[in-house]
Amino acid sequence: METNKPTCCSASRASSEQPTTNPDVSGAVEISVAASPQGTEGMVLIPGGKFLMGTDDREGFAADGEGPVREITLKPFYIDPCAVTNAEFKQFVDETGYKTEAESFGWSFVFHLFVSEATAKLVQNKVQQTPWWWVVEGADWLHPEGPDSHIEERWDHPVIHVSWRDAAAYCKWAGKRLPTEAEWEFAARGGLAQKRYPWGDELKPGGKHMCNIWQGKFPDKNNQSDGYAGTAPVRAFEPNGFGLYNVAGNVWEWCSDWFSPNFHVKGKRDNPVGPPSGDTRVLRGGSYLCHRSYCNRYRVAARSKNTPDSSTGNIGFRCAADVK
Ligand SMILES: [Ca+2]
Ligand SMILES: [Ca+2]
Ligand SMILES: [Cu+2]
User: Fold this and answer.
1) Which ligand is nearest to the CA of 8?
2) Which band of pLDDT confidence, cut at 50, 70 and 90, is reported for residue 15?
């Protein structure tokens, strides 16, 4: 049996040697922010119905629980065409004074190549299994590479360094919610059945880059032939058949479900919401760090996970909403 290969693509607070108790939010489940409901304007209405979820692809990671392929039925729902941007997140913070978990902890995980020389001198912790993830003090959504960085030119990029709780708080403020994992995959497939990617089975049809992942030799040489070393604007590349942008690559996206590698094997097939409890939440879609040689998790059936308090430079989210 294949061992559970570490997701090179994300680092967890639990794996760091930094203090892991967030003084502001430990144990806090309720998120109290004043709501500013946005309605469903601009969202994509996904009709619902039946689809084949998961994959038995031999190129996949069976230990992640990508299979078995199963028929899932969903009721209609709305989903955002794009990940939440820095500009949108700023509006949320401006209105509510919300403080992210990365800010409360005082640090977040930054990919090593993005850290300035000055900041690198201050870095004391790296993740053992995935040493390209550095614990950077003062890294947060406004300062994605550390205190000497800023998002000035990146307002239309996905917000990063947001934990699952931060994402849930934003959704609550916006009168929305995170998508379930099944909703995310239904929407990401764009109406295609059992294709490897949101656009088909070929990674680069006609030699064309369809998403923001890694080219070159991970983790030191990124040729960035797709145009981006880090995040890309949320509307970069072509949307899928449902009009969703960057479901594959760019940033991992939080889903509402707790993660389990096997709960779904016997779980319900009608509007599934995942296990009743867990330690980690589901991430989908892969990121700008994924590369075929070690982590082809930009495939549409690929899965990952992280603890709800974790934040990194390659995790963001998009919102969903009920059809009323
Ligand atoms: Ca790239
Ligand atoms: Ca993505
Ligand atoms: Cu990856």
Assistant:
1) 3
2) confident
